[in-house]
Amino acid sequence: MSRCSCRRPALTNSPMKTRLFPALLSLAAFAGGVCAAPLSTEIAQAHEVVKNLIAAKRIPGFSIAVARGGQIVWSEGFGFANVQQGVVVTPLTRFRLGSASKIVTAAGLARLAEEGKIDLDAPVQRYVPDFPQKQWPITTRELAGHLAGIRHYSEQDFAVTMQGAPHFESVSASLAIFKNDPLLFEPGTKYSYSSYGWNLISAVMEGASGADFLTYMQQAVFDPLGLRSIHSDHALEIVPYRTSFYQRDPKGELRPADHVDNSYKWAGGGFLSNAEDLAMFGSAMLEPGFLRRETLEMMFTSQRLRSGAETGVGIAWRIGKDAKGNRVSHHGGTIDGGRAMIMMYPDSKVVVIMLSNILVDFGEPDAQEIGRIFLP
User: In sequence order, what are the residues at sequence separation of 6 or more whose Cβ sits closer than 8 angstroms to the Cβ of residue 375?
Assistant: First the structure.
């Protein structure tokens, strides 16, 4: 997995504009470099698609990266990481991943399974002994495919997780939000999306690895892959290159996003990353190396209900086809102050990353439109 070997061009700022829209600042990481020349037509086409998307959705700050064959072929920032101070988005800018954090966590889970430290089909109490027994046994594989019957967020959770909420000092402490609730259904009989299921997975990973979750992810995933920007979104820490986060009020005016303390959901929605690191992470999931071939096949094979029906979800990853019939693997993330999308074309080894610092409704069709431009 190698990056472009050419030197990055220096990043230069355009003259500051007093209006955010439609004038958008654009900083290219690779588009102006030697390695982008063979794809200059594709980059120009994709650039227009992105500019139109940003204008239509009124996005203050946006970053995109495209990798093909394990190399970044296009990386560009648009708009502002901090509107108030006129700080522009660069390829270093870190955005919230929201639920796209699940696919990052899945790589750590897969590593433990490869090493024989986790049996994905064992009851979770083998690794988290104090997790309450439910009406039926729960396995880690069922959790990873949203088949375990663990509930998702509810309205009453907001008092715990939004402004003024306590900071959870550990993964095990965060389980208190939902651990005493009954299952929604017998595991394996239905599909029901659950971020809290991934909270429990992170506790399983702690029990299996003997390390706290964030330390394990750093040592077992981020460091080996050379990913320097993926980081937990600690609300009270200074995190270099972290964007500011925005929302729009009922009148459509731009405002700072509500405060969020993500300590209750690191595994399922609490990571930050820049677009390039996430693109290289995706590339590492497309061929053996970091993980074995059989492990990757498991991650990207749809799980099934007991009825035999496929769910379209493997180990966190969503699996399907785009509008043109190309195979895709993907996951999105929605969170206060952020939207993330990772779209991968496994047959062509193309990865598309789209990140913004406001929650807006771009998604799979937009990422697929970009991805198809770069298919060989």
Answer: 326, 345, 348, 350
The mean pLDDT value for 115-144 works out to: 98
What does residue 289 show for φ and ψ, rounded to 5 degrees? Answer: 160, -80
CA dist 105 to 108, 136, 316, Å?
5, 25, 9
How much of the chain, in percent, has pLDDT values that exceed 90?
85
Q: Residue 30: is its pLDDT beyond 90?
A: no
The DSSP bridge partners found for residue 26 are 78
DSSP H/E element including 267: helix 266-269
pLDDT tens digit sequence for 324-358:
999 999 999 999 999 999 999 999 999 999 999 99
Asked if residues 66 and 279 have their Cβ atoms less than 8 Å apart, the reply is: yes
Highest mean pLDDT of the ranges 19-23, 138-142, 157-161:
138-142
Q: Which secondary-structure segment (H or E) carries 49?
A: helix 40-57
pLDDT at 158: 63
Which residues, in sequence order, are bridge partners of residue 231? 272
Give DSSP secondary structure letters for 58-112.
T-SEEEEEEEETTEEEEEEEEEEEETTTTEEP-TT-BEE-GGGHHHHHHHHHHHH
Cα dihedral sign, 199-366-192-334 = positive
Mean pLDDT of 139-168: 82
> Coil, helix or strand for 331?
strand
By CB neighbour count within 10 A (0-12 exposed, 13-18 middle, 19+ buried), where does 1 fall? middle
Residue 119, CA distances (Å) to 122, 139, 149, 172, 331 in order: 5, 9, 19, 20, 25
Average pLDDT of the segment spanning 265-272:
97
Count of helix runs (H) and strand runs (E) in the chain: 12, 13
Looking at beta carbons, which pairs linking 174-179 to residues 24 or more positions away fall under 8 Å? Answer: 174/199, 174/263, 174/264, 174/265, 175/128, 175/131, 175/199, 175/200, 175/203, 177/264, 178/150, 178/151, 179/131, 179/132
